[in-house]
């Protein structure tokens, strides 16, 4: 009877009245686990994340969180249930300060969120130093920290990240992955899309290779890294 903490099961659907982009796509992650989605450009990775977050009407399939069917819930209602989502683009308010961005993240909370803000600053100390600066003046890596921090302000049980290391240097990427591991160790589940497939699969408990809206390969990160076909087709040999 124990199913994963989050499961997007056999999801089929697309945008509006357009053709289906996802074809029976299944993604799941357990508590405190890191699940990584990789695959070619246009494979539907971001679409699958949006489907899990409720930004897409599924024609078939279901999304369950903690055993509860949330398929019909709005994104905002899913946030209230414990989902945090950092989209691939436009994930910070550039004209607002770092601290204001974090405050925006807490919009659903009625309680005192200063403790959570202190935790975010502990995780990303540079954000504390720059808290009065407009987020638009930060480096790419620092902006991604703001975006992740903002999502953490809702105290999610599941953190969904769409290409958190896009456009950052290898050093900044390693650093960000270390922070993501740290978040997972607190019991938060991570569902993450990554372009840096090899490095991301190294830290993944579970990996998904998506191709044309379908699950092509699913295994532990380690097993996918060792699979000759996955290596040849998706990891550059
Ligand atoms: N808002 C949208 N409206 C209509 N079609 C869309 C929309 N967003 C994406 N698509 C289409 O859905 C398909 C999958 O796109 P998606 O962005 O999910 O791919 P991806 O795997 O995230 O790619 P990338 O690696 O480039 O981020 C593409 O054919 C794309 O053109
Ligand atoms: Mg994408």
TrEMBL record:
GO MF entries: ATP binding; ATP hydrolysis activity; branched-chain amino acid transmembrane transporter activity
InterPro entries named in the record: AAA+_ATPase, ABC_transporter-like_ATP-bd, BCAA_Transport_ATP-bd_LivF, P-loop_NTPase
Biological processes annotated in GO: L-amino acid transport
Pfam families assigned: ABC_tran (PF00005)
Residue ranges annotated for the ABC transporter domain, each copy included: 6-237
Keywords of this entry: Amino-acid transport, ATP-binding, Nucleotide-binding, Transport
UniProt-listed Gene3D superfamilies: P-loop containing nucleotide triphosphate hydrolases (3.40.50.300)
SUPFAM superfamilies linked to this entry: P-loop containing nucleoside triphosphate hydrolases
Coiled coil spans: none
Family assignment from sequence similarity: Belongs to the ABC transporter superfamily.
Protein's recorded name: ABC transporter ATP-binding protein
Species in which this protein is naturally found: Thalassococcus profundi
Record lineage: Bacteria, Pseudomonadati, Pseudomonadota, Alphaproteobacteria, Rhodobacterales
């Amino acid at each position: 009877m124990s199913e994963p903490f989050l499961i997007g099961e056999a999801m089929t659907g697309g945008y509006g009245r357009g053709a289906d982009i996802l074809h029976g796509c299944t993604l799941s992650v357990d508590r405190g686990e890191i699940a990584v989605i990789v695959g070619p450009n246009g494979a539907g990775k971001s679409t699958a994340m949006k489907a899990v977050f409720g930004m897409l009407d599924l024609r078939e399939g279901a999304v369950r969180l903690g055993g509860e069917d949330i398929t019909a819930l709005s994104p905002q209602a899913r946030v209230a249930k414990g989902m945090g989502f950092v989209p691939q683009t436009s994930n910070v308010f550039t004209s607002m300060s770092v601290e204001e961005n974090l405050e925006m993240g807490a919009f659903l909370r009625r309680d005192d969120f200063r403790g959570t803000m202190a935790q975010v600053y502990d995780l990303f100390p540079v954000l504390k130093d720059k808290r009065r600066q407009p987020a638009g003046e930060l480096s790419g890596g620092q902006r991604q920290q703001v975006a992740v921090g903002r999502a953490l302000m809702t105290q999610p049980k599941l953190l969904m990240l769409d290409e958190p290391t896009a456009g950052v240097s290898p050093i900044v990427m390693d650093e960000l992955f270390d922070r993501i591991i740290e978040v997972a160790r607190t019991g938060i589940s991570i569902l993450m899309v990554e372009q840096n497939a090899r490095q991301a699969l190294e830290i993944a408990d579970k990996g998904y290779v998506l191709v044309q809206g379908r699950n092509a390969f699913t295994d532990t990160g380690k097993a996918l890294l060792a699979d000759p076909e996955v290596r040849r087709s998706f990891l550059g040999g």
